[in-house]
Amino acid sequence: MTATVTTAEELAGRLFEAGIGAFELLTVGLGDRLGLYRTLSDGPLTPTALAAATGVDARYVREWCEQQATAGILAVDDPTADPDDRRYVLPPGTEAVLLDPDSPAHVVPLAGFLESAGRVLPALEHAYRTGSGVPFADYGVQHAQGGFNRPAFTGRLVAEWLPTLPDLDAALRAGGAVADLGCGVGWAAIALARGYPDATVDGYDVDPASVEAATRNAADAGVADRVRFVVADVTDPALTGDYAGVFAFEMIHDLADPVAALRTARRLTRGPVVVMDENASDGFTAPGSPVDRLLYAASVLHCLPVGRCAEHSAATGTVMRPATLRRYAADAGFTHVTDLPIDDAMFRFYRLEG
Ligand SMILES: C[S@@+](CC[C@H](N)C(=O)[O-])C[C@H]1O[C@@H](n2cnc3c(N)ncnc32)[C@H](O)[C@@H]1O
Hints:
Layout: H1 8-34, H2 36-40, H3 47-54, H4 58-70, E1 75-76, E2 88-89, H5 95-99, H6 109-119, H7 121-130, H8 136-139, H9 142-161, H10 166-173, E3 177-181, H11 187-195, E4 200-205, H12 208-220, E5 227-231, E6 245-249, H13 258-268, E7 273-278, H14 290-307, H15 322-331, E8 336-339, E9 347-353
Helix pairs in contact: 1-6, 3-4, 6-9, 9-11
The structure holds S-adenosylmethionine.
The site of S-adenosylmethionine has 21 residues, from helix 9 and strand 4.
């Protein structure tokens, strides 16, 4: 037997703490949705003033402020003052965590993952009993998924990841076109367009809500003239194109037919196909690392059920180990798979060619 928590008391304590954390994360998500943190970033406010500034009900805002201060997320100037006279503020230095969508510290989108799992829990129970799946669209997780990866795309994709692909970097500098398969709400494609002012990017995603949001995000980012988003199933053998390279960011493990998607990628380019996928350990370990724990929880609640919506599914799950990706790549016809020298806590990067 492997070592785990040793006593009932320890396990109960650990799960109790996890429950507090999950509850508090959802209150952060609520504050984010209501614009409460954003307004507090202008300076300390009483609950009444915060409510007036945001158009939110004052009694609810007071409860939320007290909860946030109790949780140590907001600071309060005088806890002994009358409830309506206390002034609440973001602790200095926490703005990046709560407010900056491009900061690596911005973990607020995690709240959206919790919310989405809660939304589909009855459907998940049914899927587990019957061996069926739960459609991606039912989770309503597009914004959270995009938001979670956005800082890496904005900050690292062009500055740190593309330099490990000199041929693709050069092609993009020269105004080449690339495809982004399973583009989600578009942050990777937008980062590429911003980093390479002459390049064009086509993003493909099967989820219409994602494509709609991506199109809006590209317009807001001022790159709509060079980034196009299309609703398409990338496992469709009829999908054709001629790109300098193809990206598949955190999507291969989600697919019922990952080999078909890789075949499409191979068909779309004579250049490299770049797969970014989960930083799962090489093999199963228990207990696992925090990253493995996160990946398995995501797999149980999201990726495996999403991938099992088709009748015949590879049923990969979030924990796609390097050997699995290499097998899929070989089955799709690639002759070379190289690990890109990119150090990242969450992701592995593979260059496929041949
Ligand atoms: C985990 S999300 C990743 C989104 C984005 N690449 C990112 O890194 O944030 C996986 C995406 O793959 C898309 N997807 C799943 N199956 C697909 C398919 N067969 N064709 C095209 N897109 C697909 C989903 O709709 C979703 O947007």
